[in-house]
Each structure stands twice: as C-alpha cells, then as structure tokens.
Amino acid sequence: MIALVQRVTEASVSVGERVTGSINRGFLILLGVSRDDTDEDLNWVVSKIAGLRVFSDEAGQMNLSLSSVSGEVLLVSQFTLMADCKKGNRPSFHLAADPEMAKNYYEKAIFGLQSMGIAVKTGEFGAFMQVKLVNDGPVTITLDSRDRGKRPV
After folding, report:
1. Fewer CB within 10 Å, N side or C side of the chain?
2. What is the average pLDDT value for the chain, to the nearest integer?
3. Higher pLDDT, 150 or 103
4. What would the pLDDT profile of 49-95 be if each residue is shown by its tens digit?
5. Are 11 and 131 in contact (CB under 8 A)?
6. Predicted local confidence at residue 76, as pLDDT
7. Is the pTM of this model over 0.90?
8. At residue 116, does pLDDT exceed 90?
9. Residue 18 pairs with which residues in a beta bridge?
10. Sign of the C-alpha dihedral, residues 114, 97, 141, 152?
11. How far apart are CA 53 and CA 90, in angstroms?
12. What is the DSSP string of the chain?
C-alpha cells in the first residue's frame, strides 16, 4: 500500500462540476492499494499517517502531528501509484488491487483515520476526478507499507 501524503493549506477534489471533498490545513493523501496488501499494510499506513509529525511547532520545527494542529485529511483513491514502469514507456498496473479489494481498503482507511479522531473528506472511488491543492512547504512524503520493518543501510 502506498500513501502519497502532501501537507496542504487547502485541497479539494471534484467529479465534473461537483466538489466531493474539501479541506483546509491538513493532508491530501493519494492512496494506492496493491493486490498483495493485507490488513497489516493498512494498519501500518493509517498509523503512520496519524502519527506523522510534519507540522511546525512554535520554534518552526516540523514536530507536530495532524491531531496536534486540528488538521483534516482529504483521501483520494489512486491506483496509478501502483504503476510498474520497468519495461517500455506505457505503465503496467498489474500490481494494483482489483476494484473491489481496493475499495474495501480505501473505506477501511477512511474508517481507521476517523476512529483516531481525524476528520476525513474523500474523493469518489473509481471516478475521474480533478484534484486541486496548495502544497505547504512543499512537504510531500511517500509511505510504502512494503518498507515497514526495513532498517536503513
């Protein structure tokens, strides 16, 4: 599971002319689900998102979490994060979960974040969406559950 986390001052997602989700300060998260993902992957990603300390404290240091700043999450399903570009120039999406599995994990991620007291707005699963954001910093962090437990060399 891959979560591309962007610290934002504002973000919104629309389907056509209809805004499906909009937030102010917080995280815009693009979530990609792999066909090999498990509940363990989901729990790791949700926990990392909730605990990520990338908001500035009084000293200007990135030291505060989402809940410390009363931040919100805009969660958008993004199967293209699973793109495999090793061969040729046309991405392969064979690593992506099928839509039913991906939607299940997307909904579990929403519930998991909400159960931690985080306000979550969403895109529309499976729809063609337009995403607008103001990246703050910019701060963009990739969380990949395949990296959990690995120690840097």
Report:
1. C
2. 95
3. 103
4. 999 999 999 999 999 999 999 999 999 999 999 999 999 899 999 99
5. yes
6. 98
7. yes
8. yes
9. 15
10. positive
11. 36
12. -EEEEEEEEEEEEEETTEEEEEESSEEEEEEE-BTT--HHHHHHHHHHHHH---EE-TTS-EEE-TGGGT-EEEEEE-GGGG-B-SSSSS-B-TTBPPHHHHHHHHHHHHHHHHHTT-EEEE--TTS--EEEEEEEEEEEEEEEGGGTTPPP-
Q: Which domains does the chain have, with CATH numbers?
A: 2-147 (3.50.80.10)
Q: Say whether pLDDT at 151 is over 70.
A: no
Angle 141-144-149 from CA coordinates, rounded to 5°: 115
What distances in angstroms separate CA 143 from CA 5, 100, 146, one per listed residue?
8, 22, 9
pLDDT higher than threshold 80 for residue 115: yes
Q: What Cα–Cα distance (Å) separates residue 11 from each residue in 106, 107, 133?
A: 19, 20, 4
- The structure tokens listed for 148 are 């959990």
Q: Which residues are identified as catalytic?
A: 80
